[in-house]
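Entry for the shared binder. Reason: the reviewer on the internal report wants the predicted structure included alongside the sequence.
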Amino acid sequence: MPELMRLDREGPIGILRFLQPAKRNPYSIAFVDELIAHLTAADRDDSIRVVVMTGGDHFSSGGDLVGFQAETGKGARATSEMVDRVHDGGRAAYRFRKPLVAAVCGVAFGAGLSLALSADIIVAAEDARLCEVFVRVGGCPDTGSSWLLAQRAGTGVARMLVLTGREIDGRTAQELRVVEECVPATQVEARALEIAREIAAHPLFGVQTAKRVMRASAECGYMEALDIERDAQSVLLCAHDFPEAMKAFSEKRKPEFRDC
């Protein structure tokens, strides 16, 4: 079986490259298995501080509908188990502890768009093609897109894109707040790496904690968010990086963080 993705390195940045852009990187079970394996490896590698996901000319066309037919033909139970296994890819991306940046060129449809939405930051090409394609094929949102899209763009925009199955380009996606940045296709990966380097320059424990706090707060109300922030910040204020930052500030010098 051909290799579907590869984890490259550029200093403290891991670059997860999807390797079948000619086939538009279909989101198959094998794709999910490799995605989980590479994200797990990157999570355990302390020298990797940020990961950029890129599919080259195409991010991902979404679910491997032809490949999934073998399971759907077995009935509801087998189909439910298959969908849950497909969802493991989204779980791995969403739960990834380090910052995750998606560099999106070409198509990001269905589960492929969900994977991009699971990242912390999305950089899209101006001519990228994004689509919640599910209703076009008689389905409904899966791989987390019903929640992820609403978190980013709001419930109204999410309903519009899901119910119409409308395809939007990168410029429109930025206007609708589906993606954070939009640049020409030739600059997407470079811009994603630039953002990754900016993140990687900060203390790792603080960045990981900030990501965890932001994700947890998005899933609760204001009062619960205050409690989450209190508990996390109390740990960081007593750790080595914050006291060093305060000492460096008083001494008018650059801080010397231990985990940078």
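Summary line for the report: The CA atoms of residues 50 and 206 lie 13 Å apart.
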